[in-house]
Fold:
Amino acid sequence: MKEIREIAKLAKEASYGLIDLSSSVKTSALLKIADLIEKEEAKILAENSKDLEYGKKVGLSPTLLDRLALNPKRVKNMADGLRSVASLPDPVGEITGMKRRPNGLFVGKMRVAIGVIGIIYEARPNVTVDCASLCLKSGNSVVLRGGKEALNSNKILADIMQSVLSEMGIDKAAISFISRVEKEIVKELVQLSEYIDCIILRGGKGLIEMIGTGAKVPIIAHGEGICHTYIDEDADIDMAVRIAYNAKVQRPGVCNAMETLLVHQKIAKKVLPQLGKDLKDAGCRLLGCEKTRQILPDIGEATEEDWKTEYLDLILSIKMVSDINEAIAHITKYGSGHSDAIITSSHPNAMKFIKKVDSAAVYVNASTRFTDGGEFGLGAEMGISTQKLHARGPMGLQELTSEKFVILGDGQIRE
Amino acid sequence: MKEIREIAKLAKEASYGLIDLSSSVKTSALLKIADLIEKEEAKILAENSKDLEYGKKVGLSPTLLDRLALNPKRVKNMADGLRSVASLPDPVGEITGMKRRPNGLFVGKMRVAIGVIGIIYEARPNVTVDCASLCLKSGNSVVLRGGKEALNSNKILADIMQSVLSEMGIDKAAISFISRVEKEIVKELVQLSEYIDCIILRGGKGLIEMIGTGAKVPIIAHGEGICHTYIDEDADIDMAVRIAYNAKVQRPGVCNAMETLLVHQKIAKKVLPQLGKDLKDAGCRLLGCEKTRQILPDIGEATEEDWKTEYLDLILSIKMVSDINEAIAHITKYGSGHSDAIITSSHPNAMKFIKKVDSAAVYVNASTRFTDGGEFGLGAEMGISTQKLHARGPMGLQELTSEKFVILGDGQIRE
Structure:
């Protein structure tokens, strides 16, 4: 599609200009965008109401409509998010590890922008602003392609951001927006390796499967979150109940919510009755292994399939394990490498868990629900990587950069 | 292929055991391998001579035969390489950036092994030892798949390494070797994402094209090296001639050798006659743009195609440019993001060049021939990445690791 190729090409050209922008100019652009978003609140809400009307017409779920909806408070939050990203240190230009080699060469690494970042996301309009702000701050052009449900909201936000860039003499293609919503657009984008350096997929499993293995552009995928909480033998019972309840119930539809609870056999009788009652009171459906069902006889049976399932719903599978090793082996076999927690009072077991569990976020005595760029102190996030290469977990400014070698000599040649 | 899948599966299982190995055990294994390689020199040379015989029979070029050949000195170098990797700090387990969040959570990053690294390489037997040692030191299993020309040499080296692992009670599948040489093996390996976490391709353009876009395992490719040297307006003439000559002639068949020389128009008359003579004396064929040929009238004409060509041979294309901006624009358009150098006495121009040239290694006043793990102080290298994500340039221990978030709490839940 010529139109999409042209958008990507212009974004690439704009990215060369971003190399020259000083930190203060980027900061100033982000602050101006924040102000303009607050000033244009009425216009933004008007466009958002078009999306909400369309959403109701096509029968979006109340949850999805809620994600889509903006209000004055949410508009203010977007502006504050921009100010928060503006206040972070500029990652670009940092030179680290510069060492003198025996031949007198100085060899170090310089942090630089990646170039052009494509981002494919779903219904929340604030993602448009979060991603554009992180990319601008880190010196990357961004190509935004949001869900069709939020088209009008995303478009007005992109327009506002572009108008500030233009006013400041920055190539507005640095924040590019694709307003075509066909699925084929995504397939086209992942082929444009000439212009796009990396694509971040926030669309979940369906989107990843749709793209398959045919992409030419490197992809960082926000994969499944089959998150575990393991309650160890000598966990604090109250803490265990509180954390497990929070990990499952506080917001069950998101990737960092718990899907499987693992309980040490020696603590199961002390913790499961109370936790089971709390969860059921919250409307949660419980499925357990055979041993679990001896303690909670009225719950369903968890099958092999359950251990592999990301419910994204008020459903929890529970397994009793004989020790921490069995818990770690279960997570290794069935986990998705997203977020996993141990609740324990044992220091050796806490250390063992953080060493051996190979996930993007490994927790001791806290809810997995914290896996989030804001909660981790990154200001905002581009998404959460469940891959091992380049970026793991919430991706912030640093994950939007790469490091190149810089070598300073005074005439060295190789013998 | 069941056999290849089984090898990968065993390597994955071995990788879990590597998490438990202390640094001192890994170091001790590397030192023992070094000793055993020296002790078994005669056996290694005997196997190597089988490869050389076969190579002569099938008509390998003298250059390739030289790359393949081992001798007592090269065996000693392999052992010393192992000792050098053994002496490097263990990258695994380092926790950085641990900060306390307002809610009391400690959030930081822990460096961990990636898991299983596949490496596909060509004729040099020392690559077998370099890669296995870097993987073992960084806690990764390795699956080695070398070129068929070096099969016997690689196999004896893998056998020696495995025998030390077994003797020390380490799962020998941590250093796995594939002795089947069909091309289909590579296509099979890149599908095994269940067991292999990353594949490093050292085989150049042909190998990358063979695999195409069908890989399921993330790939780090050692792409082309279309390297430039730009001689700036006020370069030191002697230094410029010396560095450009070295970058082209010292070893023209490798990826970090210069392929295109860019010369500022104001210095061209001073530098090109001497440099042209030196290069021609070394047997180098020169091709130039129109302006270059006004100074060096007896050289061939460089066409558009030449700017895009990695000769890997004693051929050089030369272009005269009107200023540093044109030089940078040329590198941006035609370079492959490998290694590019400026020769200059101007500090602002040196800074501009390192900021704006988007390559894995950017040089000021030195030969591009230094792009190499050993020369950069990494001990050895797994290959040179021309990608931007995860690793750029020579890949050492750190590039064989990833960082996961570690979160230490005392009961925090998300509100």
About this structure: Chain B touches chain A through 70 residues (CB under 8 Å). Residues 2-222+383-408 of chain B form a domain with the Aldehyde Dehydrogenase; Chain A, domain 1 fold (CATH 3.40.605.10). The longest helix of chain B spans residues 2-18.
